[in-house]
Amino acid sequence: MKLFDVYPLFDIEIVRGRGCYTYDSHGTEYLDLYGGHAVISVGHSHPHYVQAIKEQAERLVFYSNSVVNSLQQRLADKLGRVSGYDDYQLFLINSGAEANENALKLASFHTARRRVVSFSKAFHGRTSLAVEATDNPRIVSPVNDNGNVTFLPLNDIYAVRAELSKGDVCAVIIEGIQGVGGIQIPTAEFLQQLREECDKHGTVLILDEIQSGYGRSGRFFAHQWAGIRPDIITVAKGIANGFPMGAVLISPKFKPVYGMLGTTFGGNHLACAAAIAVLDIFEQEGLVENARRVGDHLLEELAGIPQIKEVRGRGLMIGIEMEQPVKELRTRLLMEQHVFTGVSGTNVIRLLPPLVLTMEQADEFLRRFKLCLENYGK
Predict the structure, then answer these.
(1) CA-CA distance, 35 to 32, in Å (whole number)?
(2) How far from 112 is each of 25, 167, 217, 295, CA to CA, in Å?
(3) pTM, to two decimals
(4) Fold observed for domain 14-46+286-373
(5) Model confidence pLDDT, tens digit, residues 149-162
(6) For residue 303, how many other CB atoms are within 10 A of its CB?
(7) How many angstroms separate the CA atoms of 75 and 92, rounded?
């Protein structure tokens, strides 16, 4: 059997990792400034994380959601306290797309409406309604294109007001910081006005914090920079440091009904153990503050590099926009300087390192990046 060939691959096999470094099958060391799409939050193979998974696997990996799993409540208590949302409810699933699917479904149940507002350059997943709410027609198949979603310009409150005034929008879904869209940041004023408009029209406000959440922006959630509280928050990626997991944080105003949402694997014992260990490490090592401190340093240093058109971001979620396409630059960083980075579109290098990145490692990245820029675009 062949693998279904949908991923363009670098000819590198990563076989192990430690902290902010990964190692390929030939023993080459790479500085990881991408964290596997922002998934590696507490570093590769953190000893506490590994031990927690090992101990849980020796006891029980999985049983269904038809019985009590006290690990789920332990996770909910800890996440509520660390995030500042201890009055919300938690629904556990397996991925970010699934989190957004359930959030949008819950919003539609709550409002008895079907239309959704999303934003230009948005990315919310590749399944069903999540992909319809993603602003990329190339990945929306005909069966997903049902006319339920309207895309508006980011930070345009007048366009939002006009759409919500029609009275048929069940939810507005917005990323705390757009990742795939090129590290575009909603302004604090826009998010505050968005909250007001959703309240005015009885529309559910969903904050997709799948990439921008879990400490990456230097706050636990990126929307907390604006001082708002959404109705629903979706998370995944960094929640379990690579173990497949997602979650929906749900306002108390939503009342659960048996059967309205469900999952086979979501919130399983091993996933919960991994997610609890992640939050342990967040608290013990001050990773949210570290993301803010090291991220501020990177943003300041990158802003002083003349070849860069613009630097955007918060914390350890950074976009480096260049005048020319960055494909060659990213490849040189990887193959010559052994640094993993990501891209957004054609002209943006995306940095999403583990939140344990040190100042010294940040400076090492800057040194290697500047070496690649010496002949870039010539």
Answers:
(1) 6
(2) 53, 11, 34, 42
(3) 0.97
(4) Aspartate Aminotransferase, domain 1 (3.90.1150)
(5) 999 999 999 999 99
(6) 10
(7) 10
